[in-house]
Amino acid sequence: MTITVVDTRTGMEGVLRAPAADRRALLEEMLEPSRGMYRYHPGEVDLADVHLRGMGFPLDRDGERCLAAVGELARADAWNRIGAAMEGAAAELAGAVPGLEVHDITVLLTLGDPGDAHFTDTALGVTGFGGIPGYVAITLWPSPENLERLESTAVHELHHNLRWAPGGVVWNPATVTVGEHIVGEGLADAFARQLYGDRLGHTRIGVPHLHDDAVFAKVVTGLEVTGMENFTAWVHGDESARRFGTAPVGLPAGAGYAAGTRLVDAYLAATGRTAAQALRDDHALIIDTALGRTAR
Q1: Would you say 9 and 74 are in contact if contact means Cβ atoms under 8 Å apart?
Q2: Cα–Cα nearest to 256, from 274, 231, 230
Q3: Nearest to 109 by CA among 87, 131, 85, 141
Q4: Which residues, 6+ apart, have CB-to-CB distance to 73 below 8 Å?
Q5: In the structure, how many helices (H) and strands (E) does the chain have?
Q6: What pLDDT is stored for residue 75 in this prediction?
Q7: Do residues 119 and 184 both lie within one domain?
Q8: Which of 146, 168, 190 is the last residue in one of the domains?
Q9: Could you tell me which of 226, 295, 245 has the C-alpha nearest to residue 267?
Q10: Using CA atoms, how far apart are residues 140 and 168, in angstroms rounded to an integer?
Q11: Contact in structure between 293 and 270 (CB atoms under 8 Å)
């Protein structure tokens, strides 16, 4: 198992210091190691376009601000910290799950867009994606809170990567349920909390709703919804749904993370398992146990 954290510091500095006409090509070059993350996407992927639409740092403004932010990431030793955290977390999972094969993983850390209010305010300056085995992407603005949580953010995505890897839980985009996604978020947060404690382990957008019974009850009504094109509102909330062109369902930002935490915590308490041991536990079993239902 090799975890490769791409040297995006050099890449981002090169992009941000280049003449405007050269930046897009340099951005594409920097992002090339992540191309395999889009292997299920039909047709050729424009990596720069994905970056810009995904709230990545801009090419036409805020250059000095972004260069300063790259410097903050460097002073925080972000790349080394992420690599060390993921290696330690992989060893923890391998020790907890008999026969677990930990595959090679490429990690891409990039700055987000400081001028995008949805990124800075709704997403609190951090997004992550670890759902495609072999790749983790973290888009971040180096606020003190996000820098402090670098490790927990990284191991959260690692948990996703190994849950949905070959031999693990199958993620079929057409048939997967909201319940699987929400349980996955709850397990990943529980794993981060197992390693780093409650203060650092929770995904920040879910924290305001952890004890909101109305939000929890609403999310539970959507657990059987299928098709990942419908998931944004149930997991990330209505603001994200509107941003990415899907229908809102009446939920605040991070609702799915809060509900997932409650479901997973109830399951772990009932079974005595750890989040590491539960890496690949069936989402229906977790939900039924948490809600006191007869197993399906």
Answers
A1: yes
A2: 231
A3: 141
A4: 9, 79, 109, 111, 140, 142, 147
A5: 15, 4
A6: 98
A7: no
A8: 168
A9: 295
A10: 28
A11: no
By three-state DSSP, how is residue 67 classified?
helix
- The percent of residues above 90 in pLDDT, for the chain, comes to 94
- pLDDT by position in tens, the chain (length 296): 899 999 999 999 999 999 999 999 999 999 999 999 998 888 889 999 999 999 999 999 999 999 999 999 999 999 999 999 999 999 999 999 999 999 999 999 999 999 999 999 999 999 999 999 999 999 999 999 999 999 999 999 999 999 999 999 999 988 999 999 999 999 999 999 999 999 999 999 999 999 999 999 999 999 999 988 889 999 999 999 999 999 999 999 999 999 999 999 999 999 999 999 999 999 999 999 999 976 55
* Amino acid sitting at position 256: G
Retrieve residue 281's tokens: 């536990």
Question: pLDDT digits over 216-266, tens only?
Answer: 999 999 999 998 888 999 999 999 999 999 999 999 999 999 999 999 999
> Tokens for 44?
């050729």
Token pair for 62: 């805020």
For residues 73 and 103, state if they share a domain: yes
C-alpha 153/C-alpha 161 separation (Å) is 13
The one-character DSSP state at 36 is G
Residues 90 and 218 in one domain: no
Angle between helices 213-221 and 255-271 (to 10 degrees): 90
- Looking at 143, 168, 193, which one is the last position of a domain? 168
Domain count, the chain: 2
d(CA 46, CA 171): 24
Backbone angles phi, psi at 231, to 5 degrees: -85, -25
| Domain span holding position 257 | 170-296
What six digits make up the tokens of 180? 């699987």
User: For 57, which DSSP code?
Assistant: P
- Based on the fold, state whether residues 29 and 128 are members of the same structural domain: yes
- CA 155 to the chain's CA centroid: 9
